[in-house]
User: Fold these one by one.
Assistant:
Number 1:
Amino acid sequence: MTQSFESRTLLRDVTLRDGLQLTGKMLPTARKLEIARRLLELGVPALEIGSMARPDLVPPMANTVEVISELTPEELDRCWVWVATPRHVEKAAAAGARHFQYCFSASDSHNQANIGRSTEDSLAAMPAAIELAQQVGGSIQLCIATSFTCPFEGRVPEQRVIDIANDPRAHGAVDVVVCDTLGQAVPAEVYSLVSRVRLETPQRGIVFHGHDTWGLGVANSLAAVAAGAMTVDGALGGLGGCPFAPGASGNTASEDLLFATRPDWLNPTTFGSFVELSEKTLAELGEANRSKAAQGARSNATAFEWVIGGGR
């Protein structure tokens, strides 16, 4: 199998958080646990397993605490939980979580719609969130939503993201998550911003979180990797989107990212199992499969080893 620099890329599957938050159905705790454990078993390095958002606002996340509490410490070591306040960190940590994605928006308008406070208020509370995470031996990421465009304010200046990443109140974060929340960025923009985060802010890991609204999810993710990101987010079948971001569609499909980056743990058989898990989950949710790679895996090109049943 031909390898390239992309094979070093880590996938974080966000199906159980970002992927589910716009669906009309809530998966029971037992089913979420099955999906999480199957993804880990297949080799996915990291998962996002839920959100501490208010269940009346994001109903599919209502059983996140139950999901956390049922996973083992070893499983939770590869799992992240979305948080937006110190209280969120406290509640998730009490259930057993140790990795927290502290998220707020670069644009005030979206932060008000999504979290109910200004960007400055979210940033001001981050030191307390970092301290709570460190008290339980955990880690926390700085997640900057609307890093490229905002549904209410339009284009977000690069410098705005750099200033947030450079703010001393965020320096306890182990990673910076750069988010194309609306999927409106193009590869040149992604490469430029991720390069600046890498070169002009404290040394931390960089995660790229992209959406495929305009069909550039994979291209943008590869541009982020070329600029220095080591982790990219994806969801099964391209599920997901932000309920407070008009114009946002699903995440970049995990299947597409895996087919493009070919991590060392992936082979045609594993990929086939991944596609089958995706298909089953999407059917349960009544959602369409937006993954081009999953569609390719079901094609009749039987001489190609990545087609399910092909060349094997």
Number 2:
Amino acid sequence: MEARAVFLNGPKDLRLDTLALKPPGEGDLVVDISYSGISTGTEKLFWTGEMPPFPGSGYPLVPGYEAAGEVVEAGSSTGFKPGDQVFVPGADCFADAFGLFGGAASRLVTRADRVTRIDSGMGPEGALLALAATARHAMAGLNKRVPDLIVGHGVLGRLLARLTIAAGAPAPTVWEISKARRSGAEGYEVIDPADDPRRDYEAIYDASGNAAILNDLIGRLTKGGEIVLAGFYPQGLSFAFPPAFMKEARLRVAAEWAREDLTAVSALLDSGALSLNGLITHHVAAEAAKLAYPAAFENPDCLKMILNWKDAA
């Protein structure tokens, strides 16, 4: 069995190739992928070569952990059947490439317990479940405050804001330095940080991945406030101790989403409390992946780039 897949041989060395797939086992599904998203976090770091050492990663690799498609083969014990529409958070199914992510391909073999059923009408938005689950994971759990300030109005920042409102909390303030990205707010305000005089935020969620602003964020906290690192940071993190000492600042790292996060955001989507509308700005055929990847990372107007695998040859 083979699939067309994005093959990243090294930094900025990317092509579409035909790769052999590992044969499915009894508990596996074979999924024909319709759409996959390009992550501007971890995938960008692999693209630039800045990704720090990470267990299970290396070159060559198939990137991507945002994929949606249709089950075409299912073991009898999986609980799935051909025709089911599913979200797939990547797959380690390639014979000749690392598959720590492995979602950017026309066909995937994956364990059934990794996928999530989605509504057939979601279309390309079905590939966004991982980001919605990431945002929910940062906010959910015992003694976790919802954000009153979110840094960055990319897809993750927008989802954090939408989930805050869906939780019935006061609308957060969102910082965005790019004027082009300040549009698209739904029930909250997006401002330039230079125009914000506040220094009493209780919970600041950083979705920018910019380690250089940590000192500024500490200065914006109320005493005992918390900074949640919701992005991915290739550089070492550091901050001046005296301001953090005076504020009794707390830092929390938001890790990868868990299964219950996918379940929770799926329920919010089904109820209409959460929407994924307006987050995808660019669609291209998978055959144009070589051009799509740099555009996703370098074009400031691109919030989310989606590859269409339906006609991949």
Number 3:
Amino acid sequence: MRTGTPSPALPVDLSEARRVAVEAAEAAGTLLRSRVDGPVDVRPKGTAGDVVTELDMAAESLILERLRASYPGHRIIAEESGILEGAPGEEMVWLVDPLDGTNNVAIGMPVYAVGLALCARGEPVLGVVHDPVTGRTWSALNGGGAQGPGGAPLTLPERPRPGRESNPVLAWTQGHQVGPGDAAAFRLRSRVEAGCARMLQLWAPLVGWAMLARGDIDGFVGYLPEIVDLPAGALLAAEAGAELRRLDGAPYELGIDRPPAELSFVAARPELLDRLLETAAGSAPAP
């Protein structure tokens, strides 16, 4: 994935937008953390095994209220509310995932995150990932690097953790529309898993992206991922130093208007990327 300095003509101060997004994500995280251990009303969402809870709705409502207060003209694409139009011709679009990892929360597993991204003309310029469990927040600006908790610079460690040079730890994600009978997904996941020490399937992609950005894992593979949480996490990892490619090795262009088939990805530490692409190449679905 290529990142660069956003156009100076952007009609928004990205430093201020980062502050607004971080505060909204952290407020949503506080709400989630205060209620996640109580009774949670879980309802089916669609026919692919996804679920939604009142926590998703409450956290999203809080975030939307704050975004609308600061940027009333911006468009918003929210996980639960869908597309919320802004001013006519508005090119700034927020993507909001108020609770990435709802299935985990539904079974009492504390692995979830809040994600926000701001896109300009379809391309992400700001990403925020907040982990309510630990209270930590990570953010990135396109071409402006990544930050960890407290605003400290975030970059990948120069080397993987000891013992992982040839035995990487990876994460896997796939979209809710990918069914158990998807042969391409099965082949790809099986080949990737066979070539690593461990492969995590977290059900919370934003957690995986933050782990990659910190160097906790070495790579991340996604097959037909969900668009609402993709830009925030991918931008964070790329600005921290990870490299992203499409499954066929082509450059990864992260735009919210791209077709689903072009959103599948391989992301990794730079020195691992070619090896991971070779592993995926034999099983990647035809474009």
Number 4:
Amino acid sequence: MSTEATVIGGGVIGLTCALELARSGQDVTVLTADPIAETTSAVAAAIWFPYEAAPADAVLRWSTESAAVFACLASDPSAGVALRAGTVLERSAAPDRWWTPAVPGHRVIPGEELSSGVTSGVRCTVPVIDMGRYLPWLSRRCEAAGVRVIRRRVDDLAEVTGELIVVAAGLRSAALTGDAPLVPLRGQVVRVANPGLTDWLIDDDNPAGMAYVVPRFEDVVCGGTAEPGVFDTAADPETERAILERCYDLVPELRGAPILSRGVGLRPTRPSVRLEALPGARRIICCYGHGGAGVTLSWGCAREVAALAGRA
């Protein structure tokens, strides 16, 4: 007999958890305060990269598992996933490459082969996920698996029925569980028409501010910012101008590309991802605090949630 499971949160973590629970035989309902297309997940550049997520051992495990799933999905045109080569630029004499064990075939490039001020770089091929395609694809998979998605804001877990509850509500998760508050890490991006780029670049330590250029299909995501504690979701024109200048410096071919859209997302950060079952009479599983790596960790975390649900 299936368990009645309720997932709170309609972003990439909540939907992926819902799909994995449904595939394991649970009767699943998703409660989401926002339309799926308006969640923080919809703003993400969504290149596979474990940004601002800890602890390292678990993050490597979850991200490796997710990368394998995304690699398979790259063969499905409707999923919006592509495997793309690119470079993580390094500006330190002793760069921290803790994430590289999750990327087979990566190689280190000396700074003289890269742009000015860069000491080295890591060249690798990783999944790039177009969230405008991927979230609808994920929603369809959930629907096909029998998952119900309901627009409803939850302010208290006592309001929620079901034998199992999964809290995956991004920034609002901590208030529901009584955890220490999550801190938003504001990220602003601008999307421009793709002039034919395929390679991505990440330059987190750029002295002018973090910069990344992520080509998808028709567009290129240019970013970005990482502003802790900032809740403002309005795109700032001056910030946008600075982002574009940093990206133009990295990739001159982008200069003059038409702006297609812009977005701001609040990454839900905490010292470590919280993925655990809470003690007590009710079966509650926490899955939140993924920082800037929600998409990157989504499949690995969702499968762990399903495994925890099956042990009870």
